[in-house]
Design brief:
The protein has about 300 residues and is α/β, with parallel strands linked by helices. It has eight helices and twelve strands. Strands 1, 2, 3, 4, 5 and 6 form a six-stranded mixed beta sheet that branches. A six-stranded parallel beta sheet has the order 9-8-7-10-11-12, sandwiched between helices. α3 links the parallel β8 and β9. The radius of gyration is 21 Å and the shape is elongated. InterPro entries: Isochorismatase-like_dom, Isochorismatase-like_sf, Isochorismatase_domain. It comes from Apteryx mantelli (North Island brown kiwi).
């Protein structure tokens, strides 16, 4: 589990002191403590658990072991010690918080089930066709992934980077039945509308992510998703960049972060899991011809 999947704030809310007033708006000074470190910073007034986690990751991301579970605690003056962050806590005053690793080391297993999975298709647009390495191959692989998602009833979220200037998703990609097709200017796919769509999917745990560019939109999306406690699977043969160097170094970096870098065939067969699955024959037909290697086996 990712560090941002820190234990949810407990139900009891008492003893949330340890702060001094900081006014009713703007930013609030907060001391962020982790291990032997203590770094003063600030967050917007009214920030909650998620924003505190994001701030911890921005301050200490290079020290945090993403395979461990954490709990956030608040220093309470009345107890003269740290307490678990109260449920519904919002920063309204100057305060001190810390991120505490639990003792259990968590391993990312990468198990997939259709009921807890969503597909993210990132910026597979017409204007990128001449620039992206092996774009024809990743279009082909992306299309078989979306066909598999439809067969298995898995929600699909699609973004398009500034479609007014860069065009819509390529015609070869069939977006029939997609839960959301959304324009964006931000590089990451994690927009408010996407977060709202994820909240509507009960029990979502895993995101299958593919598209362009690996070192920009894919990388930033993946890091934001694991920061929210989701498990991310990047489909290497359906993901590319303008530069093979950028593509391969991004995949290597993401794998070291605990993100699962895999292939389209592995994803589709893992989702059916059994030849007795009612959709196995149809999924088998999708992968009967091996997916193109999209430059993954070529010399960089």
């Amino acid at each position: 589990m990712a560090a941002a999947e820190a234990a949810a704030p407990p139900a009891s809310g008492g003893g949330g002191g340890g702060c001094s007033p900081a006014g009713g708006g703007g930013s609030v000074p907060v001391l962020f403590c982790f291990s032997v470190f203590a770094r003063p910073s600030s967050v917007p007034h009214g920030s909650g658990y998620e924003l505190l986690i994001q701030k911890f990751l921005s301050l200490y991301g290079d020290q945090i072991d993403m395979h461990r579970k954490f709990v956030v605690q608040l220093f309470a003056e009345e107890w003269s010690q740290y307490i678990d962050l109260p449920k519904g806590f919002l920063v309204s005053e100057r305060c001190k918080v810390r991120l505490v690793p639990l003792q259990i080391q968590m391993t990312t297993l990468g198990n997939l089930t259709p009921s807890s999975t969503v597909f993210f298709c990132c910026d597979m647009q017409e204007r990128f066709r001449p620039a992206i390495k092996y774009f024809g191959d990743i279009i082909s692989v992306g299309q078989r992934l979306l066909q598999g998602a439809r067969l298995l009833g898995i929600p699909v979220i699609v973004t398009e980077q500034y479609p007014k200037g860069l065009g819509s998703t390529v015609q070869e990609i069939d977006l029939t039945g997609a839960k959301l097709v959304l324009p964006k200017t931000k590089f990451s796919m994690v927009l408010p509308e996407v977060e709202a769509a994820l909240a509507e999917i009960p029990g979502v745990r895993s995101v299958i992510l593919f598209g362009v560019e690996t070192h920009v939109c894919i990388q930033q999306t993946a890091l934001e998703l694991i920061g929210r406690g989701l498990e991310v699977h990047i489909v290497a043969d359906a993901t590319s960049s303008r530069s093979m160097m950028d593509r391969m170094f991004a995949l290597e970096r993401l794998a070291r972060t605990g993100i699962i870098v895999t292939t389209s065939e592995a994803i589709l067969l893992q989702l059916v899991a059994d030849k007795e699955h009612p959709k196995f024959k149809e999924i088998q037909n999708l992968i009967k011809a091996s997916a193109p290697e999209s430059g993954l086996l070529s010399k960089v």
